[in-house]
Write a structure and sequence with these properties.
245 residues, alpha/beta, TIM Barrel, 8-stranded parallel beta sheet, 10 helices, glycolysis, isomerase, EC 5.3.1.1
Length: 245
């Protein structure tokens, strides 16, 4: 049986003061699955240390992005080894905000995925369609292309030990969640596409998840947790979502 994972993606929000208050308020009693917090880069070491001090088992920090390169003259970039140094366990690659605002292509996302995998950290690969693509009945084609680009580069056993997050772009930060049935249909498709590793891979749903809708999403057989944006900035609300998993 797969463990659940609920992940907090703070995006470009927070401060030192926010992080300290968040971890002080975060009560994970009664949570049985894995939990991960993805703060902005500068707060990773602080988050790692505050989480360690809290003493919960199976709690991790992760980064929201990474360079596909190992080192060099790449102003503003951050490598996987730096993330490891800072205590990261997971790294998000291919979030739709990176794909759309920073023009990250399927190929670049695949290179980042491979860099994370080779470093021993765990990639959280985000996939998902825009509203236009959904309305044109292209959802599954878009997701297949996003997955296939990674497989084409990383090949072989690339999915084992990785996490996938299905995030319909039209549901991110909009308050419009995919229905549990809509999400399940895509998760089932993704799992089948992962081949032999599929049954073991955690597939998260992301897009306006909150405590009020988390349980109905988590009841679906192929939804193994959530990648939470806005609602993860409230420690109590986030802990409620974790408890629902
Ligand atoms: O990474 C998280 C997703 O983009 C979802 O964000 P949201 O919960 O604010 O819709």
């Amino acid at each position: 049986m797969r463990k659940t994972l609920v992940a907090a993606n703070w995006k470009m929000n927070g401060s030192r003061e926010f992080a300290e208050a968040f971890f002080k308020a975060l009560d994970l009693q009664g949570v049985s699955g894995d939990v991960a917090i993805f703060p902005p880069f500068p707060y990773l070491p602080l988050a790692a240390s505050l989480l360690q001090n809290a003493g919960y088992e199976r709690t991790f920090v992760g980064a929201q992005n990474v360079s596909q390169q190992a080192e060099g003259a790449l102003t503003g970039e951050v490598s996987v080894s730096m993330l490891k140094d800072c205590g990261a366990h997971y790294v998000i690659v291919g979030h739709s905000e990176r794909r759309s605002f920073y023009a990250e292509s399927n190929t670049l996302v695949a290179q980042k995925f491979l860099a994370v995998k080779e470093s021993g950290l765990v990639p959280v690969l985000c996939v998902g369609e825009t509203l236009e693509e959904r309305e044109a009945s292209k959802t599954l084609d878009v997701i297949a292309a996003q997955l296939d680009a990674v497989f084409a580069l990383a090949g072989g056993d690339c999915w084992s030990g990785a996490v996938i997050a299905y995030e319909p772009v039209w549901a991110i930060g909009t308050g419009k969640t995919a229905t549990p049935e809509q999400a399940q249909k895509v998760h089932e498709f993704i799992r089948a596409r992962l081949g032999a590793a599929g049954p073991q891979v955690q597939i998260l749903y992301g897009g306006s998840v909150k405590s009020a809708n988390a349980a109905s999403l988590f009841e679906q057989p192929d939804i193994d947790g959530a990648l939470v944006g806005g609602a993860s900035l409230d420690a109590r609300e986030f802990a409620e979502i974790c408890r629902a998993a």
